[in-house]
Structures are given as C-alpha cells and as structure tokens.
Amino acid sequence: MRGRTVVLVALASAIAGACKKNQSDADRADKTTETEPTQPAGDDATSAAPKGPTGTITGVVKLTGTPPEMPMLQRGSDSFCAQKEMKAETVVVGDGGALANTLVRIAPGAVPGWIPDETVVVDQRDCMYRPRVQGAVRGQRLQVRNSDGTMHNINARRLPWGERRDTETLFNRGQPKGSPPMEGKIRDGDIMKLKCDSHGWMQGYVVVGDTPYHSTSGSDGHFTIEKAPVGTYELQAWHEMYGIKTAKVTVEEGKAATVDFTFDAEKDKPPSMTGGSAPAGGGGP
To answer: 48 lies in a domain?
Structure first.
C-alpha cells in the first residue's frame, strides 16, 4: 500500500517553521511518504485530453426528508478561529432540498485516463478547508495553502471508495501562519480525507479518480461536467454522509445530458447515527 500513498513535498521554509512545534507530525510524515514510483491515473495516462466529440452532463443533487441540524462548532480553543462562529458543514442543504458538496463523476475506467495541467488547490481559510469537497486526478499536482493567522497541520487520511472509515495516514505536515504553500503530486486513487489535529472540526475531501470529468454540487445543488466524451457511462455521486448513488448517462455531441440524484435523509444516513443528529463535531463518515 505504501506505493500508493500521497507525496506532499512542502517548501523548505514551511517545513523548517513547523519542525519545533510539530516534530512528531514531521517524523510520521517522513515515514508515510517514503514511496516507490507510481504510474499516475493508469498505465496509459497522459496529460492531454482525448480528442473527439464531447457533450455536457448537468443536473441537481437533492436531499429528501428532514436534514440533520448542524451544530455550532466549538472553536474557542484557538483565539484566531474563535473570532468567527460557524456551523458544522457535514450536510449543507439549500432551498428545495438542494444538497451541496456532492462530488459527481464519470466512473473510473470508463474513458482513457488523463491528467490536467491545473493544480488542485486546498485552502485553509476561516479555520475550515475550502473547498470542502472537490475532485482530482491521480498524478495531478496538489497545493495546500494556509490563509489563516494561525498554525494548522494537514493530516491526510486514506478513505477507500465506498467505505466510511479512513484506514491510514498518507501525510501529516505542520503549516505555520504566513508560510508558503505546500505542493506535491497526488499518488493515491482513493478519497483523501483532510483533517487538522490542532482543530478537530476541520475536515475536507479530495475525491481522486482517473479523469477530470467530475463536478461538485454547489449551494443550489447544481453540478456541470463540461466536455465529457460522447458515450454511455455510469455516473457516480458521492456525499460524505450519505454515501454513493449511481445512474446511467448517455452523452451526445454538442448536447447536455441531464441526470439528477436524490439522497434520503433517513434511509441513506450512516447506520451509526440515531435520532437524525449530526455526527459529533459535524465529522462525517
């Protein structure tokens, strides 16, 4: 499994600034980032998008039933974070049951893998991960920023697709305030669950696949996957609490295929939850 871990190589100044305060984290990160070379996004992965006719996939993700009430986050342990009150964001529901932060993608293996040039950016802002949920491609570059006036540490854990519990540490690095971004390549094919050991309420997710044909639903529940290759595919929708839904989609040249997803607040909640309440701290799976 070590050959599939994520390698996040921080700039020297960021690592140096974190050493004294987070030596144990740095030691653990060194152990978890000793990897063998990994071919990203499949053996035939390239950095160029495949040629051919394309279309668009669009739709809305909704939650039926009564959504769980999100508690206020207990952020008083850090004077910087305590300046702004925020609720947990495990379930964010808008008008008409619109469900935000759901990652929708063409199922891996459906089209040839390729790696976009764009860098995947995770920002620590207001003592939260922004965006909370986004997609990425194995082999794509990842940048982690700290825009806050306090120190964070990025504890990335492997969350296997379809599972609710993370399995191992991928990397764990401290990032003091004002330090440069950390950068590296994503070398894992599962979901990267981001946590901050200093601020237990902070969670974020990078859902890793083999192509960039993915989109995350916004506050209105809408998602759009642009320039999808023509063909018929399985479409997957993943939400941190409610799990996975699938649907078939046929993409035609120059047209928009519409696929909607619906999660049920009661039927799709994790078995460990009772009474419709949110996980402690708004944690998720």
So the answer is: no
- pTM here is 0.82
Q: Are 261 and 100 in contact (CB under 8 A)?
A: no
Same domain (yes/no): 179, 133? yes
Q: Verify that 32 and 79 share a domain, yes or no.
A: no
Taking the alpha carbons at both ends of the chain, their separation in whole angstroms is 22
Cα gap 120→116, rounded to integer Å: 10
Give residue for tokens 């078995």: 271
**Whether 147 contacts 124, CB under 8 Å:** yes
Number of domains making up the chain: 2
**196 and 144 inside one domain:** yes
Regarding whether 17 and 1 lie in a shared domain, the answer is: yes
Clarify whether residues 33 and 94 are in a common domain. no
Residues forming beta bridges with residue 61, ordered by sequence position: 261
What's the pLDDT at 46?
A: 67
How far apart, in whole angstroms, are the C-alpha atoms of residue 247 and residue 225? 15
For 196-231, what is each residue's pLDDT tens digit? 999 999 999 999 999 999 999 999 999 999 999 999
Residue numbers in the chain where pLDDT is lower than 50: 1-44, 274-285
Q: What sign does the dihedral 215-216-220-221 (CA atoms) show?
A: positive
SS3 content of the chain, % helix, strand, coil (to 5): 10, 40, 50
Range of the domain at 193: 1-39+114-209
The Cα–Cα gap between 140 and 30 comes to: 21
Q: Report how far residue 134's alpha carbon sits from residue 204's, in angstroms, rounded to the nearest whole number.
A: 9
**Are 47 and 141 within 8 A, CB to CB?**
no
